[in-house]
Structure formats: structure tokens, C-alpha cells
Give the backbone structure.
Amino acid sequence: MAENVLVTVPPAPPVPVELEREPLVRNNRSIGWVSDRVAGICEGKTPLWWWMAFIPSVGFLSLLGCMLIYQISTGVGVWGNMHPVMWGWDIINFVWWIGIGHAGTLISAILFLLRQRWRTGVNRAAEAMTIFAVMCAGIYPAMHVGRVWFDWFLFPIPNSQSIWPQFRSPLMWDVFAVSTYFTVSVLFWYMGLIPDLAVMRDRAKSKVRQFLYGLFALGWTGSNRHWSNYEKAYLILAGLATPLVLSVHSIVSLDFAVSQLPGWHTTIFPPYFVAGAIFSGFGMVLTLLIPLRKLCHLEDIITMRHVDIMCKVTLATSSIVGYAYFMEFFIAWYSGNPYERFHFLNRAFGPYQWGWVMMMSCNVLVPQLFWSKKVRSNVWIIFILSLLVNIGMWFERFVIIVISLHRDFLPSSWGYFKPTWVDICTFLGTFGLFFTMFLLFMRFLPMIAVSEVKGVTPQADPHHPLGGAKPTNGGHH
Amino acid sequence: MNSTPNKAYGIIAEFDTPADCMHAAEKVRDAGFKRWDVFTPFPVHGMDHAMGLKNSPVGWFSFLGGVTGYTCGMLLIWFCNAYDYRILVGGKPMFSPYSAFPPSYELTILFGAFGSLGGMLFLNKLPRLHHPLLKHKRFALATHDKFFVVIETSDPKYSEAETRKLLADAGSKHIEMVEE
């Protein structure tokens, strides 16, 4: 067969400089350097900036606790939700946070299936971001029901009234989608952490650290028989998480699309929500990782190439979202439905025009700057743009929820929604929860997938000279 | 470390590069050993072939999980809304596979994911809180930047002198015994 055929491979022409790709780990770092650098973040002295970020975060987390206690003990009326806008900031923030939670699974699952090897530099932090964002999101529907002590009605649990949840409602589907999303994200994240917890265990100096990391590393040894099962399981989890991430925001969008309300009752919602979720998620990943790569000295692992690619994903999803905005307007006109037509004119020219302008400028216009290579290589501009993306996506949810609800079919039931101070403080409080969790994560767990980053270096490739391969005559490399 | 301890778990050989380790694994495979393993800081591409491993059966666990999830979801919704306590909502059918699909789909993924992780742990006999190798001093580098081949003394082909020679010929500079 092929082995017996003598093949002489002509030497490949040298790659032109402009076509050379920046390596995924810069400066030819050794694989040992990767563990030293990443584990060092959890092992060294706690840096001052960490405390400066952590203390206010805990402050805001306490604010969240106070607001929730106040809301539970007083009633849901402390929020601004009032007829006709019965879904206010609570559902806006729910959809916003859960959208942010989508980049983590996109990076870890979809990019894994697409063999985008650059994902290894950012996937761990993005997955952690997902989990914490979904935690923030989960608070809102749980509180929004008003009497939180009845939240268990959401689940099919036998009870004394022997009545069951009503599965024909998308709100019920949402319960299953969001809880599955959270659970599977945690599983995926934890599974990726197992080999890295073993790294931490093997480096631990104190007994306590050795015991705790060892406990959660489950006795991982790096055995190739284990890696074989592990890699297969990871691939399958990625294959399962991909339809999951696409379904979760689709189902969230069905909460709206299945209703009859102008502005909500539209078939474009599922793909449009998914694109928007990925857009906002990448915005948040950039917001978090641009300062962190500097503060934690990870520039060789989260390189400018990573940042550049993420900017391009943001640009692409921004354009999809922009297309959806225009398509909604077109369909409103083309449908001939007077309520739809009125609704969309009301969006652009009604009392909430400022919300619509914010949404259009932050989500459609501003990300177009990412076409420029200059913009994509300036971290300051990227950081500001990523903040604007987050703001714009918040306004998208505001536009969809509040503007659709405040003027529906009957002018006699029109109204104008205003948030209360409790709405605002609760929202600020969720940032406290998010950043407290994220800072604890990056202080105690490896925020870069150590074993995965090692695997994408040339030193890890047994067919690469740096991986120890001997030069052969006419070999397959 | 030249004398054999009373209860030896196996012989451990250290390598510096994935290529050296892989060639050693090929030699050990060709020599016909059964109870042996390779330990690396990351999955080395091609090592499964070098060790002669078969395709991992984890997929069956995920499949079983997925089927269980979908079936449970459909049955649960049918039982709740169409059998145990029937409530007519908006003239819709008591049970429809369409409205029951989204939650069942989510449960398929949920149980499938538990199947994958659980199957991986089951096949790897994890969690295991103690392993003879974890006591070995240099073995901590298996999660850092070194590559190890370990042949257990319980392998029928094992003989200290010959196995040590095999590993030394494969290019290992560090060969030691590991106690049970």
C-alpha cells in the first residue's frame, strides 16, 4: 500500500510574511511555562487590584441581598411593573444576563466542533462568565413570580392540590431550557477543570490546598487511557451543548413570539435572539478579558490575535442583529397589519425613541468600526466598544419588552413605564453577584484551560520538531 | 532506587517530549504488554493509536442518557397534562408531541450530558482518591511538562531487567520503580 510507494515531496515554498499566522501562544513558551503562568495567578499573593475590585463587588452583592429581602417582604409592587407594562426591568435583565451567558457555550462547544483552536485561550473564563451570568439571570424569573416561596410550582413536583405545571406554555419550556442550560454549562466547565485541578493539586504547597484541589480533581492522573475517554466525552458534550445553546435563547424568544402582541408575534425571533445573545456574550468576554490579560500578564496566551478574532465575531453578529432589526420593520410594513405598522413607527418615533436610538447606534452602527484593523488592534477602543455593545443589548431588550407592552391594541390602556429605585438597585446588585463570583473564580481556579492551551503549542505536537519529532526524509510533515 | 522494593506497583520511565513518549509507547505496544499506561499533561494526538487503544465507548452512555431523557420528558408531560390531571387550555389538545417537544429536547441534552460525564468517570474508574503513582515524587510532573510510560508489575510479560532495558532503549533517561 502507500508505505511501499516511494514519494519524494518537493520542499514547500516559504510562507510569505503577510500570510504567516501569529502563533496561539506567543514567544515560543514551553508547556511548563503555561502551568506556571496560569497557576501562578491562583498561587501568588493576592494583588491589590483584586481587593480593589472585590470589595465594591461584595458591596453591590449586599445591595442585591437587601433589595431582594425588601422585595420579598414587601411585594412585587416595589418594582416599576405596572399595567400595561407587566414585564419591566426584571425580564429585561433576565434576557440580558442570559444572553451574555451564551458566549461561553458558543466558545466552548461550537468553536470546539468547528476546530477553532484559538478558543482554548479564552474558553475557561468565558464558561465561568456563562455560569455566573445565568445565576444573575435566574434571580429575576424566580422573584418576578411575586411569591417566591411558590417557585417550586414551576417544577413538576407532586403536591397536595395534585395539579401539574402546564407544559403547553413556552414559559414552562423556558424553565426546562434555562435550568438545563445552567446544569450542562456547569458540567462542561467542571469537566474541563478536572485535568487543571490535578495541575493545581500537584503544585500545591499546603496540605489544605492539596486536599481540596485533589478532592475535586477526582484522582486524575493524566493517564492516556483516561484521556481517550475524556476526549470522547468532551466531544460529545460539545455536540450536546451546541443544539442546547441554540435552543435556549430560541425558547426564551418564544416566551415573546408565541404571544399575540405586535412587536413580539414574529417568526424571526429565535435566530435573531440567538445572534443577539452571542453578540452580547462576546461583548462581555471582551470587557472582562481585555483588562484581565493585562492585569494577570496573560498577553502570551490571550494574544491580540484572540482579541482580533473576537472583534470579528462581534462584528458579524452585530450585522446579523442589524439585519433582523431592518427585517422586522420591513415585515411590519409588508404584513399590512395596522397594529404592527403602528408599533414599529412607535418604536422609532414614540415616547421611547431614545431607547430605540441607543439600541440602533450601539448595536448596529458602533460595531461597524470593527471593520478597521486599526480599531481591532487598539485595546482601549475595543474595551469602550465592548461596553457600548453591552449597553446596546440592554436597550434591545428594553425596546422589545417595554416599547411593545406600553402601547398595544387599545389606546385606553396605554401607559408609560418608569423603573423604581428598587429596580435600579437590584440590577446594580446583580453586577455585584457577577463580579464577586468571577473574582473568586479567577483567584482560586485556573482561569485558562491549562491542558488545552498546552495541547495547541507546537511543543505538544509529536510530529513537530519542537515536540521532539526527528527530521525524516520525505515524511508526512 | 535501584533495589526493588518489596511491593512494587510498576516501573516508570520519564520522557521529555511527546514524540519520544509516543515512540516508546509504540515499542511497549509491539512488545505485547497489557497492563501499562502513558501519562501526559495533555492528550497527545496519535497516542491512542500508538498504544493500540480502541475507540472509547463513552458515546453509548450519552446515547442511553439522551434516550432516557427524551422518553422521560414525553411521558412526564403526557402523564401530567393528559392523564393525571387534565386541564383544557385554550382548546388545545391535552397532549401534543409538538408542545411537549421543547422540554423533552432539553431533557435529552441534560441526561445525555450526565451520561457523557458519568460514563467518562465510570470507564476511567474515577473518582479515585488514591493511586500509587500519586505518591511518586517525579510523577507530579505528569501534569506539568513531562511524559511518562508506566508498566505494571502485574503484567504477565513483566520482568524487571528486560522491561527496564526496553524503556531505556526507547530513550528514557529516568527509569524508576514505583511502590504500591
The first helix of chain A runs from residue 31 to 43. Residues 45-151+165-456 of chain A form a domain with the Formate dehydrogenase/DMSO reductase fold fold (CATH 1.20.1630.10).
